[in-house]
Amino acid sequence: MPGLYIGSTAPYSGKNTLCLGLGLTLRREGHSVGYFKPVGAQAAKIGDAWGDLDARAVCQALGLDTAPELATPVLVTQDFMHKAFSQAPCQDRTKTIAAAYKKVSSGKDVTLVGGSGGFLTSGLYACLDGPTVAQALDLPVLIVDRCAFELNYDILLSIKERLGDRMIGCVLSDVPGHYMEEVSSVLAPFLARRGVKVLGVIPHDRLLNSVTVESLAQRLGATIISGAAKAQDSAESFIIGAMQVENFLTHFRKHPKAAVILGGDRSDLQLVAIEGRPACLILTGNLYPNDIILARAEHAEVPIMVVRDDTYSVAKRMESLIARHKLRDPGKYQQASQLVAAHVDVAAVKKGLGL
């Protein structure tokens, strides 16, 4: 049965979004769709079995009840890594992966296979990098590249050189509005001339890049001390309040619905931030605000959380936290589907699969 391996140039580039969006779109067209993630790095106990949290989220969104251990036959845990580091040469796990894939794909019109990390390098230490797994499953490959600061066109060209015709194209994701013209008129034609077909350009989407205040608190190990009623509201970005008040005001106005990271001792910036109705305040250093701050926050319905880590450490973790939890919220499933349907050439993808 047809299958498609979806990899990416780097971790957190939009593989899950593309898998989910393509899956829901194909299902609406009447195709039965399976999902498989050969190697999972988000290991967790799911019911009575161990599985991958991202794979579980995609399976749930697609209405699949695939057993966690079957959906993700290889889980990267500390024990797995220890064994991999002590083995030379690598243990061949591709047969286990292929056997699980055969079961998952049985009876499906198409099975979407989600890669882990960066396609070329992630899992290389255990001989489970993207090219090895895709070749073992004999699948065509679609690569996602996220435009965080710039596109990874060199990596896209390297993947094409490595895979040849097995790579059916790429999708550029999270592209900011001001970069769209350059992508369409310069970069996409350049890639096409080098043999890399651009099958979609997905714009930056504020909803998909948001995370609930409650999820932020859980992942940061923080305590919400005010505004708990708004804990299900979402933060769409984050800013650091480590500047003078007048500079902070200018910066703050450019980032609505942001999580504001502040030192617990910066009551001046805390008051300014509350007046701007941010998604939440994250106070660092395990320092609690005074009663005036708490009263203002309660009146404005602005959640405040307190975390032990320093401002730098919290800021360093925030971007990966937002990226990791992009599709853990069921409210985003439909948004992902609409983005893919509107901005990805699904017909070209189907052609590459022989559907």
Shape: globular
Helix and strand composition category: alpha/beta
Quick one: how many beta strands?
17
The appropriate CATH architecture of the largest domain is 3-Layer(aba) Sandwich
Number of domains: 2
Can you give the mean pLDDT?
89
Percent of sequence in beta strands: 15-25%
**CATH structural fold name of the largest domain:** Rossmann fold
Q: Using the CA coordinates, give the radius of gyration.
A: 22 Å
Helical segment tally? 15
Terminal residue distance: 10 Å
Low-confidence runs? none
CATH class categorisation of the largest domain: Alpha Beta
Protein name: Phosphate acetyltransferase
Subunit structure: Homohexamer.
Keywords: Acyltransferase, Transferase
EC number: 2.3.1.8
Task: Kindly describe this structure.
The protein folds into two domains: 3-208 and 327-353, 3-Layer(aba) Sandwich (Rossmann fold); 211-324, 3-Layer(aba) Sandwich (Udp-n-acetylmuramoylalanyl-d-glutamate--2,6- Diaminopimelate Ligase, Chain: A, domain 1). 42% of the residues lie in helices and 21% in strands. The chain has helices at residues 15-28, 53-61, 68-71, 78-86, 94-105, 130-137, 153-163, 180-193, 213-220, 245-252, 267-275, 291-300, 311-324, 333-343, 346-353, and strands at residues 3-8, 33-36, 39-40, 43-46, 49-52, 74-75, 110-114, 141-146, 167-175, 198-203, 211-212, 223-226, 234-235, 237-241, 258-263, 280-284, 304-306. The N and C termini lie close together (10 Å).
